[in-house]
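Quick one, tokens below. Sequence please?
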């Protein structure tokens, strides 16, 4: 590898348009290209982030089928010589990783090296690696734009928490990483978008400016993209309600009550020695039950679990009825699939058991009913009275009490918020939790938000909603709430999203304004929720015939505890006083 070596960008080459609602398949395609193009025995070298990214779309057994015989962390320090193996690096383009690669190339232990990076590699880093490769063992350097974690077919995250404001350590430490992730997603989707952002958010304007600057700097990579999609950059503070609500679809409940991290759920109990077998994997590619029930409501999940267990029982009865050599042969042939199915059944039964325990133990259906009234209803006095009763009742958790007062304070912003705050003090709630009320007020009061969070700014729309609820009733009191994102998307596809509220970073041409919006990438700084991911999925299904597609991304995927923790981090930045909540998990 000479100092004149350049990077190839196969991921940026012209190709058939990739559908926006297949961001997982983009990353899978990259990995297939990377591993299939290199013949022979391979070691796959990953960093901490790419290990998680790969695990989102590939199982270990899938990768083993690509002649990958060894996985290694880039910082492992392993010095064992393996000249019969080819090294395939798939890492982020960070200075630490460049240093590790140069150290490896100075005393190589593999026969040759294939270097793949998830984002742009600068000329300085290229030269650094070229100088280190004195034995000319580097066969290729490529950029495969996948600097994000693909979650669902239409959802991705960057796994960066604590970014609710430009003042947070999270933003200061990860601002450039966030821009890299967004630009990488645009290149993966092969889109050169028109950028819009939330007018009342300095944070989203900063992100819009940085993304536009990066697109201009790397304009050659965006040249072949002829369509005019929208990149809409939103701020979490515009809808602080959604991450505070208890969720009732399967994927959302798992994250809310158990926590999902890179498709993995830890079922170990706090304070008990960790059992690796209790960390389970949720994959829509390899777990049919999870894929089919991803958005199933809690009330319907019981029947699905029952059907799953009954199917398992039938298979057990069938396997127990072995009478001939032929029966035994069939059993042995089918045993791996049966064992996999058995593990899957056990996994979902155990998760549902844990979820049900938390729902009943913390009285979450009672709490959720009040949450939904605060988010969607108009019974102001009744809601206030019920909150007072819950605060005074020791059977409810501090966090659930706090969240009800938070929802009340966002919805009504009246003098009784102070009364509720005093009531929390009398109930013995820790001051660091109560302080989060002020942090949320400063972050997301009605003067700080953009958009019509509660549908009250337009009186006609508000009255229509009241009349509709009165005439039709509510089919499910626990799932009335619809995220603000839904209304934004509906307005956007009808070209009715107000420019004063969501301005263009660079004013579009008259021709661009006339074009119908079909491809939309939404990125929420501060984090998204699985409820919003579910609603984007429904939106894509409903608009499939119109060929309208949305991809949703965010700095992280929030649940209630994470949102409270991020508010606590913000409070600490503002006051020096801690404010993290005690997790119920």
């Amino acid at each position: 590898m000479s100092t004149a070596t350049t990077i190839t960008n196969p991921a940026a080459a012209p190709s058939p348009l990739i559908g926006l609602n297949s961001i997982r398949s983009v990353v899978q395609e990259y990995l297939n290209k990377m591993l299939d193009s290199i013949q022979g025995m391979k070691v796959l070298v990953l960093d901490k982030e790419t290990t998680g990214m790969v695990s989102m779309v590939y199982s270990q057994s899938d990768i083993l089928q690509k002649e990958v015989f060894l996985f290694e962390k880039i910082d492992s320090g392993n010095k064992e010589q393996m000249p019969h193996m080819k090294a395939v690096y798939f890492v982020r383009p960070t200075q630490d990783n460049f240093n590790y690669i140069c150290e490896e190339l100075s005393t190589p232990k593999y026969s040759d090296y294939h270097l793949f990076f998830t984002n742009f590699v600068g000329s300085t880093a290229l030269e650094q690696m070229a100088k280190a490769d004195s034995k000319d063992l580097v066969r290729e350097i490529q950029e495969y734009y996948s600097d994000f974690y693909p979650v669902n077919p239409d959802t991705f995250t960057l796994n960066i928490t604590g970014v609710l404001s430009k003042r947070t350590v999270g933003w200061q430490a990860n601002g450039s990483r966030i821009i890299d992730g967004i630009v990488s997603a645009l290149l993966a989707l092969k889109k050169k978008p028109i950028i819009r952002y939330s007018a009342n958010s300095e944070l989203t304007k900063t992100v819009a400016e940085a993304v536009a600057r990066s697109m201009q700097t790397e304009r050659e990579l965006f040249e072949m993209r002829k369509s005019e999609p929208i990149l809409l950059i939103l701020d979490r503070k515009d809808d602080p309600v959604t991450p505070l609500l208890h969720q009732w679809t399967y994927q959302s409940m798992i994250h809310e009550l158990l926590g999902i991290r890179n498709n993995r759920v830890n079922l170990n109990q706090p304070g008990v020695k960790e059992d690796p077998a209790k960390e389970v994997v949720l994959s829509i590619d390899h777990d049919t039950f999870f894929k089919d029930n991803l958005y199933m409501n809690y009330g319907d999940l019981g029947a699905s679990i029952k059907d799953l267990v009954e199917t398992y029982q039938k298979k057990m009865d069938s396997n127990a009825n072995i009478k001939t050599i032929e029966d035994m042969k069939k059993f042995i042939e089918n045993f791996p699939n049966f064992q996999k199915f058995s593990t899957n059944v056990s996994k979902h039964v155990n998760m549902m058991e844990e979820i049900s325990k938390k729902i009943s133990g913390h009285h979450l259906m009672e709490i959720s009913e009040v949450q939904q009234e605060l988010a969607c209803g108009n019974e102001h006095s009744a809601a206030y009275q019920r909150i007072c009763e819950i605060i005074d009742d020791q059977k409810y958790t501090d966090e659930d009490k706090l969240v009800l007062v938070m929802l009340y304070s966002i919805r009504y912003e009246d003098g009784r918020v102070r009364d509720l705050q005093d009531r929390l003090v009398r109930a013995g709630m820790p001051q660091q939790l109560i302080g989060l009320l002020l942090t949320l007020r400063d972050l997301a009061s009605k003067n700080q938000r953009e958009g019509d969070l509660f549908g009250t700014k337009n009186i006609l729309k508000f009255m229509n909603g009241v009349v509709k609820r009165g005439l039709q009733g509510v089919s499910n009191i626990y799932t009335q709430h619809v995220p603000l994102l839904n209304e934004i998307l509906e307005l956007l596809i009808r070209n009715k999203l107000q420019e004063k509220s969501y301005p263009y970073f660079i004013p579009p041409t008259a021709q661009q304004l006339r074009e119908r919006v079909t491809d939309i990438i939404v990125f929420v700084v501060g984090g998204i929720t699985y409820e919003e991911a579910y609603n984007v999925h429904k939106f894509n299904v409903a608009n499939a015939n119109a060929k309208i597609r949305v991809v949703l991304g965010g700095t992280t995927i929030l649940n209630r505890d994470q949102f409270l923790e991020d508010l606590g981090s913000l409070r600490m930045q503002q006051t020096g006083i801690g404010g993290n909540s005690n997790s119920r998990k």
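The chain has a mean pLDDT of 88. The radius of gyration is 26 Å.
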